[in-house]
C-alpha cells in the first residue's frame, strides 16, 4: 500500500489518501462528501498471505471509535480493504460481533498508475445466461432477449478483451445501423480467492476516464466458466447469489465477427491467389498444361 499515496475505489465513489509516514489514512466518500480520519492503533500481519489486520481509530466529525480493517495487497496497483462495525474499545473491534471475514463489506482500490497484464483467457467465447451482464452493453442500444454475445480475449493484444453482441435484424431497437455492438476492455491484475475462484480487474479501454470492473469466475470441470461482474468491488469470498453468467469456449482467435474484417480477409486471400497464378504459369512447361477444347 505504501507504494502509492492516492487510491480510488473501482466504482469511483471513494478515495484513500495515505500520509507520508504511513500512519494515517484519510478516507473520502465522494458521493456524500464526507471524510474520516483513520489512525493505526495496532497491526497484525496475516501469516501466509499478503494481508494485514489493523485495529484503527476512526474519527468522522464528532463521532469516533475503533474499527477492524483487513488490507489485502493484490498487486502494486490494487488493494482491497475489508472493514467491520465501529466499537468503543480496541479489544471489541475484531470480535465476531463487529467483524466477519466472510460478510463484512469490502472496497477495492486502484492507484493512478495501474498497469495492464495478459488476460487469463485466449480465444473466442460465447456468453450466455438468464442474467447477461448489462454493463457490457453499449449505452443507448438494446436487443431482444435472444441476442447473442461473444467475447474475444487476447486476440488483438494479450491484455485486450472485446465483447460483441449481435442483435437479430428485426430486433435492433436503436439508431445503430449495424447489428454488432461492442465494448472494449483491458485486463489488469488477477488473483485467487478461494475454492478455485479467481478475481480479475478489467477497465474500459475507451479514451478519457477509466471505468473499472471486477470479474469473478470459476472454471468448471466441463470447461464452462461461471462468472459474475461487479462495478463496486471484487468479492473476497466467491460469488454473489445473483448476476452469474456462463462463458463457453468457441474456438481460437480468428478473424473478428464484423463484416469489415471478413471482407479484409477475403481481399487478402484473393490478392495471394492472383500472385500465385502468374508464378504457376511460368514454372509449368507449356506442353504439360491441359488445353480445354
Automatic annotation (TrEMBL):
What is a biological process (GO) this protein takes part in?
Answer: autophagosome-lysosome fusion
Q: What's the domain of life for this entry?
A: Eukaryota
Q: Which residues form a coiled coil?
A: none
Name used for this protein in its record: (salmon louse) hypothetical protein
Originating organism? Lepeophtheirus salmonis (Salmon louse)
Describe the location of the DUF7043 domain by residue ranges: 5-102
Amino acid at each position: 500500500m505504501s507504494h502509492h499515496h492516492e487510491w480510488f475505489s473501482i466504482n469511483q465513489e471513494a478515495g484513500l489518501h495515505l500520509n507520508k509516514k504511513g500512519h494515517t489514512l484519510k478516507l473520502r466518500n465522494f458521493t456524500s462528501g464526507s471524510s474520516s480520519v483513520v489512525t493505526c492503533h495496532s497491526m497484525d500481519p496475516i501469516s501466509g498471505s499478503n494481508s494485514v489486520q489493523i485495529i484503527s481509530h476512526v474519527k468522522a466529525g464528532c463521532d469516533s471509535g475503533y474499527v477492524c480493517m483487513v488490507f489485502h495487497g493484490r498487486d502494486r496497483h490494487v488493494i482491497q480493504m475489508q472493514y467491520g462495525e465501529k466499537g468503543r474499545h480496541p479489544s471489541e473491534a475484531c470480535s465476531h460481533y463487529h467483524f466477519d471475514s466472510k460478510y463484512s463489506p469490502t472496497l477495492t482500490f486502484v492507484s493512478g498508475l495501474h498497469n495492464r497484464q495478459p488476460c487469463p483467457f485466449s480465444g473466442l467465447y460465447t456468453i450466455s445466461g438468464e442474467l447477461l451482464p448489462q454493463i457490457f452493453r453499449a449505452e443507448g442500444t438494446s436487443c431482444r432477449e435472444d441476442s447473442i454475445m461473444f467475447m474475444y480475449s487476447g486476440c488483438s493484444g494479450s491484455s485486450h478483451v472485446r465483447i460483441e453482441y449481435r442483435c437479430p435484424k428485426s430486433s435492433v431497437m436503436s439508431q445503430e445501423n449495424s447489428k454488432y455492438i461492442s465494448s472494449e476492455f483491458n485486463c489488469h491484475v488477477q488473483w485467487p480467492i478461494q475454492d478455485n475462484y479467481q478475481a480479475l480487474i478489467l477497465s474500459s479501454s475507451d479514451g478519457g476516464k477509466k471505468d473499472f470492473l471486477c470479474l469473478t469466475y470459476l472454471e468448471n470441470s466441463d470447461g464452462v466458466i461461471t462468472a459474475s461482474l461487479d462495478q463496486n468491488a471484487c468479492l473476497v469470498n466467491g460469488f454473489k447469489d445473483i448476476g452469474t453468467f456462463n462463458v463457453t469456449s468457441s474456438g481460437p482467435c480468428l478473424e473478428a465477427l464484423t463484416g469489415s474484417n471478413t471482407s479484409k480477409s477475403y481481399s487478402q486471400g484473393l490478392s495471394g491467389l492472383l500472385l500465385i497464378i502468374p508464378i504457376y504459369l511460368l514454372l509449368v512447361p507449356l506442353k504439360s498444361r491441359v488445353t480445354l477444347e
